[in-house]
Design a protein that fits this description.
Elements: E1 2-7, E2 11-17, E3 51-53, H1 63-72, E4 79-82, H2 88-100, E5 106-109, H3 111-119, E6 122-125, E7 129-132, E8 135-141, H4 151-157, H5 163-178, E9 184-186, E10 190-192, H6 200-211, E11 220-222, H7 239-254, E12 279-280, H8 283-291, H9 304-311, E13 313-315, E14 329-333, H10 343-354, E15 360-363, H11 372-385, E16 392-393, E17 409-412, H12 414-423, E18 433-441, H13 443-452, E19 462-467, H14 469-477, H15 480-487, E20 489-493, E21 511-514, H16 517-527, E22 530-533, H17 536-545
Parallel strand pairs: 1-8, 2-3, 3-4, 4-5, 10-11, 10-12, 14-15, 14-17, 15-16, 18-19, 18-21, 19-20, 21-22
Antiparallel strand pairs: 1-5, 2-6, 6-7, 7-8, 9-13
Helix pairs in contact: 1-2, 5-9, 6-7, 8-11, 10-11, 10-12, 11-16, 13-15
Length: 558
């Protein structure tokens, strides 16, 4: 039995083990250390001081920020024990040690050792061994291959370009070692995910880097933030929160990032082209860029996205390497007849469950005609349940035909899809809020909703749509915004559902409905509301009646 010390240290604690990966963002409360993902087996348990044993993590790139916040709050796990590659919380633990002197050990064990750890009750960790209930597991330091650095890389690493870029390059080199990369790759653009005030750590990190003189070197866009930047005061957001959220966004703007404030950067005029190496974070954006645009980016953790933007360099690993973009599992879909647009997020959700750590190829959908919005919804839901950075859809995504079909095969039946629908529809039929825009709505999605939003919404129901400023401008110019507002919908730019809290989240709302598979999964833990899921048409009809459909859609009934 053998393991590697990714981040070494000495500690001890009770073992908390699970066979299912956990997204720290949306899955763990950074203030209490308690698991809040209502769909996860560890829901309700505290991670504080535990030796957390799981195969790897999953879900959002923002988990690194949650991990850093747990460390700064003194409620982090005592150590992490993984069986597979893991970057997100590892990066958070690395930053905690490097910048704030709060290191958290991270281990990776071979299959035999991991099985012992997963079955154990108590662990003792030293720098060269892990003891599980008295059973010793030897630990080796992380093997570091020689990294081929350019003269400019070396200059940044030696601090000749300032302390901020030195830290950035140190972390990039450390992540390259973790990912077994022997070279770095140039990237043409970045996208920053850590500009949401999901935790205090994000603000401390960004302002520290800005004060150190950090500045991006490549064109860089910014994710949605935690407030409507220009209107939060008028919306009743408490200044104690609004000012801090604005400070966080402004810190990245000072470092040269463009204030796009959207979680859908692929809808901007700067969207990358096929084969372009980029340095993006934000899970749905990464998966869409790789899957639909055939651009190339690893699912970079928060904070590493800034470091890549500051240096223009990323480890040459993962799906930057063409061979690593090959599918490892074929998921054949027995396509139900007369399906609606709810099919696509449901397929992404179940594909992620079936391929939690590997790239899948979906077949059986060749005769369908998904829109880009359908693929966008699929990618977002896939990123919720899988750690993989992309998927392929035969007949629809640009690289699906570039690789041989995997030998491993699973089949998704109508009954499987019905089970997903049931999992995402745990709330009551009485609905108080209909939520659109996770990820941010495109202009075509705004058009589709405006076409459905005829008549009058129910008197006591709220309808909220989140968009990027670019889409808001275009919707205003072509009259779509006026149609949505006439229906009673409120349109918020800059912010998205993953960070909406009261008072933008109506305090009186106890239940909500959404057409987003991603938000249907995260909303119970993030908002404390009960949730239902359905197609765009179902959501629009619920906005008119206040009552969600009573049963499975007709196309899912047996």
């Amino acid at each position: 039995m053998l393991g590697q010390s990714i981040i070494s240290g000495s500690t001890s604690g009770a073992i908390l083990a699970c066979s299912e990966g956990l997204s720290f963002w949306g899955g763990v409360d950074p203030v209490t250390g308690i698991v809040i993902d209502a769909h996860h087996p560890l829901c309700g348990q505290s991670l504080a001081g535990k030796v957390l044993v799981m195969p790897t993590t999953r879900g959002s790139c923002s988990g690194s920020g949650v991990m850093l916040d747990l460390a700064l709050n003194g409620i982090a796990p005592a150590a992490f024990v993984f069986a597979q590659a893991e970057d997100v919380v590892t990066l958070g633990a690395m930053i905690a040690g490097k910048m704030f002197d709060r290191p958290v050990p991270v281990l990776r064990l071979d299959a035999e050792a991991f099985a012992v750890a997963a079955a154990g009750r108590h662990a003792e960790l030293s720098h060269d061994a892990l003891s599980v209930d008295g059973i010793a597991i030897s630990l080796e330091p992380l093997a570091v291959a020689r990294l081929d650095l350019s003269a400019q890389d070396q200059a940044m690493l030696e601090g000749k370009d300032g302390p901020a870029r030195r830290i950035a390059m140190e972390v990039i080199c450390a992540m390259a070692a973790l990912q077994r990369a022997t070279a770095l790759v140039d990237v043409t653009q970045g996208h920053i995910d850590g500009c949401i005030l999901a935790n205090t750590a994000n603000l401390r990190f960004a302002e520290t880097m800005a004060e150190m003189g950090g500045r991006v070197r490549v064109p860089t866009t910014m994710n949605a933030i935690s407030v409507d930047h220009g209107n939060w005061r008028a919306q009743g957001v408490p200044p104690v929160f609004g000012l801090r959220a604005a400070r966080l966004a402004d810190a990245y703007v000072r470092m040269g990032a463009r204030p796009t404030f959207t979680c859908a950067p692929y809808l901007l005029e700067t969207a990358p082209e096929a084969g372009e190496n980029i340095g993006w974070s934000e899970s749905n954006a990464v998966i869409f860029a790789n899957t639909v645009l055939a651009a190339r980016t690893v699912k970079h953790p928060d904070y590493l996205d800034l470091f890549i933007a500051m240096t223009g360099r990323a480890p040459m690993s993962g799906v930057y390497v063409p061979a690593n973009r090959a599918p490892r599992l074929r998921i054949h879909v027995e396509l139900p007849q007369d399906h609606d647009d709810a099919l696509w997020p449901m397929l992404g959700y179940i594909a992620g469950q079936l391929a939690p750590n590997s790239i899948p190829l979906l077949t059986g959908l060749e005769a369908t005609k998904p829109s880009r919005d359908d693929l966008k919804a699929m990618c977002a839901a896939f990123g919720t349940t899988s750690a993989a950075p992309m998927l392929h859809v035969a007949g629809h995504t640009p690289e699906a035909a570039d690789f041989a079909e995997p030998a491993d095969l699973v089949t998704v039946t109508r009954a499987d899809l019905a089970q997903v629908w049931t999992e995402l529809n745990q709330g009551p039929r009485q609905i108080d809020l209909v939520a659109f825009g996770s990820p941010h709505f495109s202009l075509s999605e705004c058009h589709a909703l405006a076409d459905q939003a005829h008549g009058h919404r129910a008197p006591m129901i709220d309808v909220i749509v989140t968009v990027g400023q670019n889409v808001l401008r275009d919707a205003r110019d072509d009259g779509t915004l006026a149609k949505l507002e006439a229906f009673g919908a409120r349109i918020f730019p800059d912010i998205c559902w993953c960070s909406i809290t009261e008072p933008l989240m109506p305090p009186q709302a106890r239940s909500l409905m959404t057409n987003s598979g991603k938000y249907a999964h995260y909303a119970p833990g993030l908002s404390g509301r009960e949730v239902r899921f359905g197609s765009l048409a179902d959501c629009a009809e619920t906005a008119r009646t206040g009552i969600a459909p009573a049963s499975l859609p007709a196309w899912l009934e047996g």
